[in-house]
Every structure is written in C-alpha cells, then in structure tokens.
Automatic annotation (TrEMBL):
Gene3D superfamilies: alpha/beta hydrolase. Residues 15-72 form the Epoxide hydrolase N-terminal domain. This is Epoxide hydrolase N-terminal domain-containing protein. It comes from the Eukaryota. Coiled coil: none annotated.
Length: 102
C-alpha cells in the first residue's frame, strides 16, 4: 500500500498546514513517559510469537525510544516539516546524526 498517492475516491486534496505544539506539552509528555511504569513480565508478555500481544521487551524498547526521541525534530532538522512522511523525517534525522537510513 502506498501512502504517496491519494485514493481515487478522495473528495478533497490535502493542503499545507503548520503544526504548533507548545513546549509545555512536549515537557508534559516527557514527564509522563519518565513516570510511566512498565508492568512486570507475565507468561503472556514473554511469548516471542506475540500470540497474546506485544512483549515486555518491546514495551521497554518503545518506551526508551520515545524517551530519547527529539520531539522538537521538525524545528531542528532541515527538510522535515509537518508534511513530511515518516520515512522522510527518519532519513533527515539520521542524516543530522551523520548516519544513513535505508
């Protein structure tokens, strides 16, 4: 599935917009992430086949990624805007860190 083309049934075309997230909201998110506790491992959360959902390790990893993510990315990385797709934003972020994203 491609997200670069509008569906043929789309009634309107997207228009440019600006995202304005106050620094206080970003700080609140960081605080909530820091305070969030990960549940202890259970039989269900230890299954690598994810039959019962995501694993405890996946949750810990996702939390760590969110805590280390630069939520002000679009303000500090050239080429990333509110209209950038996630792959574009990821490539720009990796370039800003001197690494290549494939």
């Amino acid at each position: 599935m491609s997200f670069t083309k509008l569906p043929a049934t789309a009634k309107t075309a997207p228009t440019p917009f600006q995202v304005a997230v106050p620094d206080s909201a970003i700080q609140e998110l960081r605080t909530l992430l820091e305070l969030a506790r990960v549940a202890p491992p259970t039989y269900e959360s230890l299954r690598s086949d994810r039959k019962f959902g995501v694993t405890t390790e996946w949750i810990k990893s996702a939390k760590a990624e969110w805590e280390s993510f630069d939520w002000t990315l679009s303000r500090v990385v050239p080429g990333v805007t509110s209209r950038s797709s996630p792959p574009v934003a990821a490539r720009a972020f990796m370039r800003s860190k001197g690494r290549e994203f494939t």
